[in-house]
Amino acid sequence: MVQEEDLELYRSQLLDSMSERPVHSVRGLSDPIQVYVNERRVGELKGAETEGTLHVHGVDHIETVQLRTEDGQLLGGVVAPESGFRANRVRLSADTVELCVQNTLQGGSLSAVFIPAPSFWRRTWNSLADVADRWTVRRSESTMAYGFRTVAFTQAILAIAVVGLVADRVMIWIAPEHIVAPTVQAEALRTASIGEIEQLAKQLRELRLMQTKVGEALQSQEKGMTLLHQTMARLSSTQESVASSVVMVKEEMEKRQEGPEREADRPAQLPPGKGSVDQEQFELAIHGLASDNERLSKQIAGLEEHNRMLTAKLQTAIAHVAKAAEQGPERVVAREADVARKHQLLPVVDSRQSAQAQPFLFWVTFSEGTTQESIDQWVNGMKGHKGVQNEGWQEVQILPPPVPPDLFLEQIRGEKIIKEARLNH
Amino acid sequence: MQNTLRKSHIIADPTVSVSRLEEVVATSEEFDQVVAQALPILLDRAAGYTKRFLRETGQWNDDIEHEKFALRWGSEYLERFLVCGRSEVPCRPLFLFDSLVAKQHSKPEPFCYHPDLLKPLGRFLDGLVARAVVSRDALIALYHHSYGWGAGDVIAVTGLNGLESQRIYKNFRRWRESGWQRTMDEMGLTKPELAELENQRQRHRQRFNGEAERLIRVAQGHYRKSEPDHYPCLSRSQWGEMFTQGYGCDYRIWHLALCLDCMQTAWGLGSCGSSAEKPRLELQVRP
């Protein structure tokens, strides 16, 4: 009887906990979101106030994707289709996580993007951008809207900054007694706890990171503008040449219409006029370009297919290596010898061996203030050597790592001196 | 949905709910509404399937421990269904739920079953380790429950850097505030059972820890499979390389919490130094 009551109590408790489960989880602002694929943790989305992304590719098919908080609460998820693509948006309070999962014959892939709720400043910013956009669209040509929009943005930012500075000054003049003396600040610094100092240091680091990101964004925007200008210049020159060709053709046609008699006086086998020759040449060039384009498309498709096959082979090889590592070196050697005897070395094994023989190349950028000496030390520690440098990226060659490339890059990124790491430049 | 869900299991009409569950629901909101009215039915259904699975695999016994085990896994499946089922609309919820449970039961070793893990100590350990797989808070707390360490010790042993250290303190705080209690509730551990465990720990320390070590190895062996494939046990030199080069934070945190042997192997590689005695299991009941 007591046991039955105990069981009923447990059942009610479970039902209550499920009933009280909030749909939109209460999650700390800076807490990462744990991502699980097929109930295995594959990574986390570091989304605080900025967008965070996570990409997962695997040989295995994806069945389920789950998002959980650090305390284990299930926030949302998606059941992947047997084959094909499915997307789902998971709302977490005001934030959103977009999940895109795809299963193919080669395996499954997941893309998770954390989109934070727009802050007050961002909303204001967007509103200003919209206003500026509408204004520029109404008043100028569509090709120049981008430039005007940038100018409008800059003006708006400057106006906000000036207003902010003036307000700050006014506040200081109004309430001078609130200004903390430097000695008091120093005292406060001395009495502050290590936790607070660490927190401040963390905030400073984040600020520096944000500044760097803003700088990078501005640079890329500048580059984009330059490219846009170049493209526009090319476009206008092309337009001019096309217009002149059209004028020439028109003139030629008019000439032909005006003087048929004069033309009739001429011998019948006269060579064709300059306009018609140009037109024919244009047509020939267009045909040539079209056929070239078609051939290139076919080549690209072929290369993509080849690339897919290579990726599949690589994944299989990685899976073999992982299994072999689990089973111990002796068993691996024995098994490989056995397999080689039986099958005269399968292509998968060949590809793995050739992959191991080739050096592993990747690109890194280093944190600010990293000395050349520490970079050299790091490269030596990796038992590798440096390759070329390009736009701040350093190529590094090492022996193939024992872990998959994605995990290896993840590990590299965790190191102090490394700012970013990727496979291709 | 929260308001709709609350206490709805008390007033739900089983006949109406089941027939409604068999009909097609077209939107996520409709799915939430229909499922919220049928939570008790779905829980009993999932528990029934789990019971049947245990019977068919020769693991069932007619006692309260097994009943609780079936209920616990039933609620686990139901939780996943509530969240993932929303993305499957339009669907017939009952059939979708049945297929989800069937899919779970068609996997090899769908849950960690051992007769000794159904007793209070086993349930406690099973609950801790199972939770550690889905909750980072529980994972970090596992260091405390296994070895009695605080946040500082965990940071030193696993050789973490500044940013990661802050997270460890947060994990400990959340676990103390709510995580531990929630896990105990989910495992159906009552206050008298927890008090008895604490009593045993104080009175028969050696025997208690010996038994706990035997059982935690069973649980860790099962749940460690939930780690990514590339997280195998490593040799001391491999651990050493990872610690000195400063990579693989996740690897260290995950694997060392879930593997007593690797903790022995990697002992002393962090900033705690190798001079201290190798850690032995000192089970802590309270957070």
Shape descriptor of chain B: globular
Number of strands of chain B: 0
Gap between N and C termini of chain A? 70 Å
Gross morphology of chain A: extended
Q: Please state the oligomeric state of the protein chains shown.
A: heterodimer
Largest sheet of chain B: none
> How would you spell out the order of helices and strands of chain A?
HEEEEEEEEHHHHHHHHEHEEHE
Radius of gyration of chain A: 32 Å
| Beta strand % of chain B | under 5%
User: What's the pLDDT, averaged over the residues of chain B?
Assistant: 89
Number of helices of chain B: 16
The largest beta-sheet of chain A arranges its strands as 2-1-4-5
Describe the overall structure.
The complex is a heterodimer of chains A (425) and B (287). By secondary structure, chain A is of the alpha+beta class. Among the domains of chain A are: 33-117, no CATH class; 296-356; 359-425, Alpha-Beta Plaits, CATH 3.30.70. Chain A has 11 helices and 12 strands. Chain A has helices at residues 2-19, 120-139, 145-174, 182-191, 194-258, 260-265, 274-327, 329-343, 347-357, 372-381, 405-413; strands at residues 33-37, 40-45, 52-58, 64-68, 74-79, 84-92, 95-104, 107-115, 360-366, 385-390, 393-398, 418-422. In chain A, a hairpin with a 2-residue loop joins strand 7 and strand 8 (107-115). In chain A, helix 7 crosses helix 9 (347-357). Chain A is extended. The N and C termini of chain A lie far apart (70 Å). With 287 residues, chain B is mainly alpha-helical. Chain B has 2 domains: 2-105, no CATH class; 115-265, no CATH class. In chain B, helix 8 packs across helix 9 (136-147). Chain B is globular and about 65 Å long. The two termini of chain B are 32 Å apart. Mean pLDDT of chain B is 89; it is low at 1-11. Classes of the chains: A alpha+beta (425), B mainly alpha (287). Chains A and B meet through helix 1, strand 2, strand 4, strand 5 and helix 5 of A and helix 5, helix 6, helix 8, helix 9 and helix 11 of B.
